[in-house]
Specification:
By secondary structure, the chain is an alpha+beta fold. It folds into 2 domains: 41 residues; 98 residues, Beta Barrel (Lipocalin). Helix content is 27%, strand content 38%. The protein contains 1 helix and 8 strands. The radius of gyration is 26 Å and the shape is elongated. The mean pLDDT is 81. This is Lipocalin-like domain-containing protein. It comes from Maribacter sedimenticola.
Length: 144
């Protein structure tokens, strides 16, 4: 093979590699758009309404009731919890899948902590607060 043939093949190879690289970038963009559209399909509809706390690792808060309106859970009966009526207990609820929701939980120290609500088909909510201590595990059921 002569030097002339090598120089002709190299630009063709470089052109093919660039073409492949650009086509790969478009595929990643398309996948990102699909994921965003899929996230938008999940709603908070299943969470709307009134919930009563029936379990967890801070029993003094059992009996507390919350009303979920839009993307917030507002305390309607604080029982002996130390919270006030109308405190926003669940802040910025966001659906991450059909049955799982991320939000911020109001702690007894008045700080908000990242948390996850797991909605179960029997109208039960399991709460996992990303903070150690009393109240980081909770169970809620829907009030009729």
């Amino acid at each position: 093979m002569t030097h002339k043939t090598l120089f002709t093949i190299e630009p063709v190879m470089i052109l093919l590699m660039l073409l492949f690289a650009f086509s790969s970038c478009e595929l990643v963009e398309d996948e990102t758009i699909e994921e965003t559209q899929q996230e938008e399909e999940y709603t908070l509809e299943e969470l709307q309404g009134n919930w009563i706390r029936v379990g967890g690792n801070n029993p003094i808060n059992n009996g507390m009731t919350i009303e979920v309106l839009e993307n917030q859970g507002i305390i309607i009966n604080p029982v002996e919890s130390g919270f006030e009526k109308n405190d926003i207990k669940w802040l910025d609820i966001r659906a991450v899948s059909e049955m799982n929701f991320e939000y911020k939980e109001l702690g007894s120290d008045s700080n908000y902590y990242p948390s996850i609500l797991f909605f179960q088909e029997d109208d039960t909510l399991r709460v996992d607060v990303n903070h150690s201590g009393a109240g980081n595990y909770q169970k809620w059921i829907r009030l009729e």
